[in-house]
């Protein structure tokens, strides 16, 4: 199956791909081009995103706009904004439930409403399908720019109330059924919102299926690099893992020995790596890791891992460092004349407050970074020895990123307190909620932040062996393993149990 790398998420997801390759050189146009993989920088918590450019061909998919409060928690603030939603009544039968696909950190897209196992269950249940656009993304922007002051309304509590207002509107104004049951579904961060909506509003939300949902906030997240390494071993071989390990550790040793010009020339950096600036050294290694991962996850095709590894393990190269530098330079040479890995280059993108800035409009870079710095953390360091990407990416890099983007008010204490409060408000991996099913893949880094064992009244959790992020959300097919089929059937059974007896279309009063 096609997959979105768990980094993409994090992969995916991954907070600093902004550091990666931007052309500097003679051409101003090249200098300003976004770096490869920038979409991952804005989507660490959205490990699975709808395919870019997907347009529904279903004429029953209808778009609408709903007015919502900018600040749901201040009765004196009467400011409002509009957000976009989509509905599909193709399968709806009178008396049926509402199946709502929760939107994530990306512009609205009907893909999961049109193509998923959740859609298939909705068809069997005679459900109205819907999805919505997360505030601050796409055309659902509540402010005039993305200044730090204006980003203060980007909070999960605000998003939850947007969702509940939409549910109330759809039940009463679209379905004309205020008693309709409501089932939510979300993937990655959107799955987190789905599970928290059921937790906070059990009188409104009847159940939630949360796939790969990172419900535990944390500051340090070394599991990301560990699992990327495990995926390389699982889908390629140990030889590739060892080559990457050799490359990163050799680069570290060369820089420590003062051979900065050699390393800079090998990787074609715009300026020599500044070993006096520890943040820029961290940027160098983090950019290498994420640019390599971006190549492996291209088009969300898992076979790319083996193809990239074939190049890295070629007999053409004597060392891992030579193989890695050659691969990266060749892969990105058409888009840039050199690799700009400076802190200034990163800051230029992170401090862009223009709503229509390319990185903000298309990838949600500044918005998602703010959400990470003030609520979730989840910074993918290389502090674990059980991964191949060296040891130079530390929490200091992400703190520098947050402060550069939003100001010195973001301190170590503020980030730790924000993470603590997120876990305190929602319960982290012990939310004491019912009618939620948590599903993950055994090769998905987000599973470390999700719930992998949970048995409460009408709630459960399951990890599917040998699967990646989002494998369980796809419609059932002949290629599904027995374990994956079991997970999909479990989701269907739980949703059916939350809804009660199925609608009989032939019933007459």
From TrEMBL:
UniProt key word GTP-binding: no
Database matches in SUPFAM superfamilies: alpha/beta-Hydrolases (SSF53474)
Cleaved signal peptide residues: 1-25
InterPro entries registered for this protein in UniProt: AB_hydrolase_fold, Peptidase_S28, Ser_carbopepase_S28_SKS
Pfam families cross-referenced by the UniProt entry: Peptidase_S28 (PF05577)
GO molecular-function terms, A-Z: dipeptidyl-peptidase activity; serine-type exopeptidase activity
GO process annotations (BP): proteolysis
Record keywords: Glycoprotein, Hydrolase, Protease, Signal
Gene3D superfamilies, A to Z: alpha/beta hydrolase, Serine carboxypeptidase S28, SKS domain
UniProt cross-references to PANTHER family, sorted A to Z: PROTEASE S28 PRO-X CARBOXYPEPTIDASE-RELATED, RE36938P-RELATED
Family under the similarity heading: Belongs to the peptidase S28 family.
Protein name: Prolylcarboxypeptidase
Record organism: Anopheles atroparvus (European mosquito)
